[in-house]
Design a protein that fits this description.
Layout: E1 10-11, E2 15-18, H1 25-32, H2 35-40, H3 49-65, E3 70-76, E4 82-92, E5 97-104, H4 113-128, E6 133-139, H5 143-151, E7 155-167, E8 176-186, H6 199-207
Helix pairs in contact: 1-3
């Protein structure tokens, strides 16, 4: 029997991560055809509504059914608008480890949604699903993705040299070229709040 993720939703303070729906196709196509997204990801170019419908109707359900991962639409609680995409892939069920990729829509950048979605997913994986490792890989020139990793408390483990292709590097889509990948990880203990050093400090922390 293949292990796989349940069809579920994750709620954070401002966001709801849920399965993709048919009505997400127009927003998904606009988001994934954005120039910055196209530079740093392997999504088809140009990214059309047909591509979005294929992700929604075939790719995402197939990935979950095969136990490889799960795909979440990232939406705002307040407006229900689509503000990002978060994908788990290359899941190793024996190790209880998986890789995460994330995209923020151009109309939602600068709001801190990616770190919030990533931390919410990590908490769900560690606390509800018994996972022991969440891995991120960011292109060497993708400073925005690196900042997201840092904001979550992920630990940089090293560099995979010439391990990925990007479309034109930092300045937008263009011919593909090789780039290094920075590997980051989150473990369950990375999300645990630090214990106060002394009992007095603990009482002080509880009062505030």
């Amino acid at each position: 029997m293949v292990a796989n993720f349940p069809e579920t939703a994750i709620s954070t303070e401002r966001l709801l991560l849920r399965p993709l729906e048919e009505q997400d196709a127009p927003g998904l196509a606009t988001m994934l055809s954005d120039e910055l997204v196209q530079t740093w990801t392997e999504y088809p170019r140009p990214y059309t509504q047909a591509d979005a419908r294929d992700l929604i109707g075939r790719q995402a359900p197939e990935r979950r059914a095969l136990g490889r991962g799960i795909v979440f639409a990232v939406t705002e609680h307040l407006t229900q608008r689509l503000v990002g995409l978060l994908e788990l892939d290359r899941t190793d069920w024996r190790l209880r480890a998986t890789e995460v990729r994330y995209v923020t829509a151009p109309w939602a950048r600068g709001e801190g949604y990616a770190p919030e979605a990533l931390l919410g997913t990590a908490q769900w994986l560690f606390e509800d699903r018994g996972f022991q490792r969440l891995e991120l890989r960011t292109a060497a020139g993708n400073t925005a993705a690196q900042q997201v990793a840092q904001k979550t408390g992920a630990i940089s483990e090293g560099v995979l040299r010439n391990a990925a292709l990007v479309r034109g590097g930092e300045w937008g889509p263009g011919p593909e070229e090789h780039t290094d990948l920075i590997v980051w990880s989150l473990l369950p203990e990375d999300l645990d709040p630090p214990e106060p050093a002394h009992p007095a400090d603990r009482h002080h922390a509880l009062r505030h």
